[in-house]
Amino acid sequence: MPEFLRLLPPDEALARWLAALPEPGPFLTEASPTPEALDRVLGEDIVSPEALPPFARSTVDGYALRAADTFGATPGLPAYLDLAGEIHMGQAAGLRLDSGQAALIHTGGMLPEGADAVLMLEDSQPARSGQIEALKAVASGENVLHAGEDVEPGQRVLTAGRRLRPQELGGLMALGITHVQLRTRPRVALLSTGDELIAPDESLGAGQVRDVNSYSLAALIERLGGQISRQVLLGDDRSKLDDALRLAHSEDDVILVTAGSSVSERDLTAAAIDALGKPGVLVHGIQIKPGKPTILAVAGSVPVLGLPGNPVSAFIIAGYFLPPLFQRMLGIDRRGIEPAIPARLSVNIPSVAGRQDFIPVRLTRDEAGWLAEPVYGRSNLIFTLVRADGLIRIPASATGLEAGSPVMVNLL
Amino acid sequence: MPEFLRLLPPDEALARWLAALPEPGPFLTEASPTPEALDRVLGEDIVSPEALPPFARSTVDGYALRAADTFGATPGLPAYLDLAGEIHMGQAAGLRLDSGQAALIHTGGMLPEGADAVLMLEDSQPARSGQIEALKAVASGENVLHAGEDVEPGQRVLTAGRRLRPQELGGLMALGITHVQLRTRPRVALLSTGDELIAPDESLGAGQVRDVNSYSLAALIERLGGQISRQVLLGDDRSKLDDALRLAHSEDDVILVTAGSSVSERDLTAAAIDALGKPGVLVHGIQIKPGKPTILAVAGSVPVLGLPGNPVSAFIIAGYFLPPLFQRMLGIDRRGIEPAIPARLSVNIPSVAGRQDFIPVRLTRDEAGWLAEPVYGRSNLIFTLVRADGLIRIPASATGLEAGSPVMVNLL
């Protein structure tokens, strides 16, 4: 499995990878209290057990009445209504309005039986004791929120696959749905090869560097809705790598391998991944910078991503390939909405046609809007990404971008 | 404290509120393992204890050598070098190169003493036993990452106030910084008034509705970096409200009160907030839709936000006023970068000049890009927000926007 038999464009590589995976589902689910489900993916359709609001409510402070009784009312020729009482908040209306009657009601109060509209307080005035004047005609239904106007009983309000935002949690609680089924988070194994790597809490010996990728990638995966099942440093020992891959393959849903930096380390990694199961390595080498030595594989039903060892490449490549993978594995129904910042490029950036380039940029603001300034630094330098606000893509069809060009910045 | 003595524009209201708060800091901090600090705010400056990389490293597979020895080398007139050995990954170079010598080195390997450059493998070829041919001249420093090129020892790599992203966690771990001080999350009290409110797990009686705001707001606050210290339903009892406000004032950092829906409930809330401490209520009524009855107050050093009772208004208003508050209270150094989606409006939207309107929209895509379609629904309907992808703002200076107008959609 030598490197770079044929370099694929990144979108084609992604499509080939996803196409080799089994159809997603059935999905495993787990129960959760609704308030703890922020950013998780709903695992069931939600059908409302009740109406929201549960009863007709006034949307203003005023008088509940029969609209027909105000027909033709004006300040010069008001309609007179008998005051039948007051509707207290949080209680049954407790009275029935007949023709010619009105009841004081507050915003959110329950419309009494017999009433079909609410006259706003400012369109009324007190008349002689026990009566009010309606200075304006109201239509049937005016200033009333009908029972079920937000949600009808039996209505499907959310479908499985929705990633839950604060407003979904509020909506569920509004319906009394205090527990929900969530899709379980895919288990991700992070295997790092390379004799030079040590854990961050160890003392550096000569020639050694600390593992970075396990931590930046773990945080990225957490954001995407996955959970890290294991983080292992493996050196460059093929049999250790084989063992770790087999264990991860039997227990986890996704395997990430960051290969050592050298060609021999990468070849060893590629061969071990390919041996894990069919169809094996599908893509080895992508027309992308940074990240050319990326490996995309599937072993049985488990996707395997082989990342370059250097932390910037690994992070950018994971940021490109993992979001669509997790969207598919979690069955997320989002429609590709990626927040981005429109900006102008501060300088000319050359690039090679036929290769998609990702450039870390820093955003600064002037009167005309955001300016995207490349953060120069070799792709080996993790603090390049710390200094960056986002990434811009230079498409494969371009041979660079000119200063002042409009670009979309995907926040990092 | 009657409502709406003078309606303020939202930006002016915000500025007045923030200006009445004491200068932020000194900030409380707490220790955390670095890998658990995602999205938290750093509470200390980070000075690197060491160089990154810790030694000069090769960026390619090839031969470490003295650049001067390759001077003038070409494929037709190669330079001959004696092979002095191989540099193994993760180990001290273990040899010293003299003039005329080269050592096999892998990407990421430690440059041996005496060497100042690396010749790429593809620019070399084997000569007679124990020698290689350099087919190309290399400059001093070529294909070498110098010790400290990413970070110098003693360099300040992060400053307090940085919100930690995956790449910051990776960078910290790369330097062996496995624990950090984080700013403590502001404690937020959520008080809800209104006799009509019950907790979501209770059975609905006539005239009652379930509390929504405590849950949608709690999730929003969690995202902003705060923590909920208490969630209390209070009815419309002034003395209960006073007691709850006093307790929250003595123990928490921020108080949110969602007022009942009626004018009398809102007046009671405003009076109780104003009595809590000086300077008291600063703003009562804002030129904004939805959310006109918003209250902004400060009691001593504690900011108090009085939100309208209806869930959509409460959520939109909290989304407008809380992010700058938390940014200030946590001393976050971000520079106002708000991700948004550029879109075109699908229909004409009328609005009233002098009032800033927030319109929930749903995004759909056509060939020309994103189309923002208003989600119509009364502001009382929480599922309006469930159906929405984001919000657009119609500025106070406009009297509506025409179909096709470019808009920025802030994702909800």
Walk me through what this model shows.
- The structure is a homodimer of 412-residue chains.
- With 412 residues, chain A is of the alpha/beta class.
- The first copy, chain A, has 4 domains: 163 residues, Molybdenum Cofactor Biosythetic Enzyme, Chain A (3-Layer(aba) Sandwich), CATH 3.40.980.10; 51 residues, Molybdopterin biosynthesis moea protein, domain 2; 89 residues, Molybdopterin biosynthesis moeA protein, domain 3; 72 residues, MoeA, C-terminal, domain IV (Beta-clip, Beta Barrel), CATH 2.40.340.10.
- Helices cover 20% and strands 30% of the residues of chain A.
- Chain A is built from 7 helices and 26 strands.
- A 6-stranded mixed sheet of chain A has the order 7-4-6-5-9-8, with no helix packed on it. Chain A has a 6-stranded mixed sheet with strand order 16-13-17-21-20-18, with helices on both faces.
- The two termini of chain A are 33 Å apart.
- Chains A and B meet through α2, β15, α3, α5 and β22 of A and α2, β15, α3, α5 and β22 of B.
Could you report the average pLDDT of chain A, rounded to the nearest whole number? 94
Assign the CATH superfamily of the largest domain in chain A: MoaB/Mog-like domain
What is the strand content of chain A? 25-35%
Radius of gyration of chain A: 31 Å
CATH class of the largest domain in chain A: Alpha Beta
Indicate the structural class of chain A.
Answer: alpha/beta
Number of beta strands of chain A = 26
Termini of chain A, distance in Å? 33 Å
The share of residues in helices of chain A is 10-25%
Most extensive protein-chain contact, per-chain counts: A-B, 102 and 102 residues
CATH architecture of the largest domain in chain A: 3-Layer(aba) Sandwich
Taking the sheet with the most strands of chain A, its summary is: 6 strands, mixed
Name the assembly state: homodimer
Q: Major sheet of chain A: order of its strands? A: 7-4-6-5-9-8
What is the number of domains of chain A? 4
Alpha plus pi helix count of chain A: 7
Sequence stretches where pLDDT stays below 50 over 5 or more residues of chain A: none
General form of chain A: elongated
- Can you tell me the CATH topology of the largest domain in chain A? Molybdenum Cofactor Biosythetic Enzyme, Chain A
